[in-house]
Amino acid sequence: MKLYDMDAMDAQEWRERGFRRGDSFRSKQVYVCQMCRTKTNEILLGGYPGWGVQIVCPGNSFTEHDEIEKTLRRQEEVAAEVEQLSPYVDEAAHRDPAVRELMRHWEAEQLLFQVKIDVLRMKFAGVLDDVAGIAELDPAMLREYRPGMRFGGKKKSLDMRQDGH
Ligand SMILES: [Zn+2]
To answer: Scanning 10, 96, 99, 151, which has the fewest C-beta atoms within 10 Å of its C-beta?
Structure first.
């Protein structure tokens, strides 16, 4: 199986339009989804209106994937809010000490988000990994990515999965 080096800038068939929209190929790099940690090295060609490469997370068609995404987004929103307000905590706590409790509450909320994400990720834990042509994973070839492509169909729960591979 031919593996393409996505870091190399040389003329590769997929750049030279040797492929068609919707074709896919395998890369030397292995992409790790930031949501569910599922690994894949399948690269899909297409994109609209341009031409580009996309990575579709094999976990994207499951409801738990949305759940992780929503929770992570909320976690990031709260973290950004806390960061933006933290310079004012001391001053505000002078006026009302409850402000410190509020900050503590937000920290606890962050932990709760994190635990939820961890538990949901455990359901994925490699069961959907789709890495072909690579016998041994080289940590230096791992690339984290945030999935952009949306699965359009009706999502099902991982618990409902029965093909069992
Ligand atoms: Zn994923």
So the answer is: 10
